[in-house]
Amino acid sequence: MTHTWWKESVIYQIYPRSFKDSNGDGIGDLQGIIEKLDYLSNLGVDVLWLSPVYKSPNDDNGYDISDYYNIMKEYGDMNDFDQLLKGIHQRGMRMLMDLVVNHTSDEHQWFEESRKSKDNPYRDFYFWKPGKNGGPPNNWKSFFGGSAWEYDETTDEYYLHLFTKKQPDLNWENEKVRAEVHKILKFWLDKGVDGFRMDVIPCISKRLEFEDGDISDFGKLIQERYSNGPRVHEFLQEMNKAVLSNYDIMTVGEGPGITKELANLYVGKDRGELDMIFHFGHMFLDHGKGGRFDPLDFSFQEFKKVFAEWDQSIGEEGWINIFLDNHDFPRMVSRWGTDGKYRVKSSKLLAMLLLTMRGTPCIYQGSEIGMTNVEFNNIRDCRDIETLNAYKEHIEKGGDSEAFMKVHHTHGRDNVRTPIHWDGTDQAGFTTGKSWIKVNPNYQQINIEKALNNSHSIYYFFQEMLALRKTHKTLVYGDFKLLKASDKQLFAYTRKDSENQFLVLLNFSEERYGLDGIVDPEKAEIIIANYVGCEEFENELRGWEARLYELNA
Ligand code: ISL
Ligand code: CA
Hints:
The chain is α/β, with parallel strands linked by helices. It contains 17 helices and 22 strands. A hairpin with a 2-residue loop joins strand 12 and strand 13 (291-295). The longest helix has 17 residues, at 175-191. 6-O-alpha-D-glucopyranosyl-D-fructose is lined by residues 60, 63, 100, 143, 163, 199-200, 254, 256, 291-292, 327-328.
């Protein structure tokens, strides 16, 4: 397998709005990130991915861009950006920008022109259609509730928006649109950024028949109607050839709707498209037909199977990301671990999982100290447009508020968007003012200052795991083999290449787990574990215990 810096890197995702506020307005900003660069560099991550920092009216917290060449006022200006980029590079790290080009804001100048008249030169930058039988052109639903079409009086037509109505979809069929996207890429790459995370990239090519879909199953709708459209590979290859291939960068596609069977079409080494994708195999496991607010049970075996099957499908051909949470999903410890008594142990266990699989791992801000989901008792405390829309729909259908808030607590996006806990002072040290979204009340117990003062903290476990991944390239490139696939408690696998072999044992339970026949103490040496003092071999794993062994043949 070819070795590259982007396979050997670990990404850290920053959600700028909630990372660190430098000027007391309650909103995180670029100077706030600059203040904390040493913290990030000491953790040992290589690449910082910034969720969008471009000018935006913030209907979807920056995922609705109104000017791709300017910085959001609340975050600072281009000088701050240049300073940030320089600070990142000075510390030997790299920066990934978030590229959101499936749609723009409705306040982008292109859309403002486009909606003016049917013959406006920008009309074809978006999808406009006449209504059908007094309603929208088809039955497509937006990711965030309601129809994916919005009626616009000025020209008596509907425009397409797969996300909110303030996020109209760009028409990639129009080569002027593609040329504009190439120009944006070039602008930021020439500034020196090191790559892009591309938002909902499989959705850029639309199925122009605009056929009705099966809206009773949202996952299916994404796959059959929204993702992997007929020209997506052509568009990506064109973009790669025209711009990306001229730079030594890293490109990461966000891939809702990309199945493991299709993945190598995007990331196969000879395809000339993307370097890697975030897949949603595990992230959608507990989403029912109605999406995230229609939760489903799933088994631990299914969870393990996702990783094993994806690894197999990608093989030596392509590359993927490994992630357990991000700004769109609940906190990893609350979701896959447990945020009660075993919070610290299970956070470390998940850190081991994240950092010992094949793929480029991505750590979401705050998870390195085991931040948890947040109890929002009142919808008035919620900020996410997806949540607000879903709540409204739920209540209109006669649903009960408490029931919704319960699901929100385990599935809503605001869980991961509250401020980072820098210390135990008021507002968790995030701001000297008042935060734009509530602070998780557990900030006195869980915060970075405390973590840095405790050598057994989750933070230092991450740091150690990151260092191990740097030292042992087998953990990056080695073959992944799942053991005991049907076991209901143990996640076990080996990573192996011609140089070395590692065994990872993760006990996903409070119950003990016997290791007879699994490890031969004569042939296995513990490299790191999440219980202190388990250097001496013990033939069972304790609650949420995680061990990494080096095996000698
Ligand atoms: O979270 C999802 C659905 O509830 C995912 O299906 C989907 O990947 C996600 O909504 C797409 O995410 C990206 O694009 C959105 C933005 O709101 C997200 O924050 C971003 O990550 C629109 O730009
Ligand atoms: Ca600020």
